[in-house]
Amino acid sequence: MILNRKNRDSGHGRGRPSLMDHTLLPPTDPQLQRDMVSHCPPSMQEVFWNCLNITIGPKHDGDYLGRQCCSLSPVHRCQTACLRAKQYSEDLANECRKSDNMQLFQCLNLIREGEECCSLSADSKCRKACSTVYSATATSASGAGINGTLRHAANTACSRSPNVLQCAKNLLKVDRLPISTSIDPKER
Fold first, then answer.
1. Which residues lie closer than 8 Å to 141 by C-beta, 6 or more apart?
2. Which of 12, 32, 85, 155 has the CA that lies 20 to 30 A from 76?
3. Is there a contact between 129 and 154 (Cβ–Cβ < 8 Å)?
4. What is the pTM of this model?
5. Separation of first and last alpha carbons in the chain
6. CA nearest 85: which of 64, 101, 113?
7. Where is the composition biased (Basic and acidic residues) (predicted)?
8. pLDDT digits (tens, 9 = 90+) for 118-147
9. Which of 65, 55, 77 is nearest to 10 (CA)?
């Protein structure tokens, strides 16, 4: 695990590491970047960091899934406000001007949409697979979305949760429900 080091000498907190020092971000140290390029092709680096942030983010940061979006802000003050937030709030909107943080707010909106959509399933495996798809899509810096393996896993895990398949159809590329799908009474 590589901790972000870019704010270590920023002077914030009188020698104490800032909140950003404890977040997982792509390395800013030139030697670490060279090592990463020599061991990991560039095409895999974004996928690696998205996976790491998705996996560790919710466990490390508690229940607020929006923290995985914080590194998308180019504004340090906004990143810090985002990391300190316990939920999306007016405080975050006051610290982070939308015009300067479009990727951040797009990510936060997609995470909220995912929380609502994935909660429609009574099946914990479906909720987890669904959340993974939303998180991977939201935090993709390129905006290219996610790979087919995650989509397939979510489609399989949620095959008996047509409400989830319906609300996530744009992310899962589901045009129609499988013929064998039966509606679980818990899903209504």
1. 46, 72, 103
2. 32
3. yes
4. 0.58
5. 42
6. 64
7. 1-12
8. 999 999 999 999 998 888 888 875 545 566
9. 77
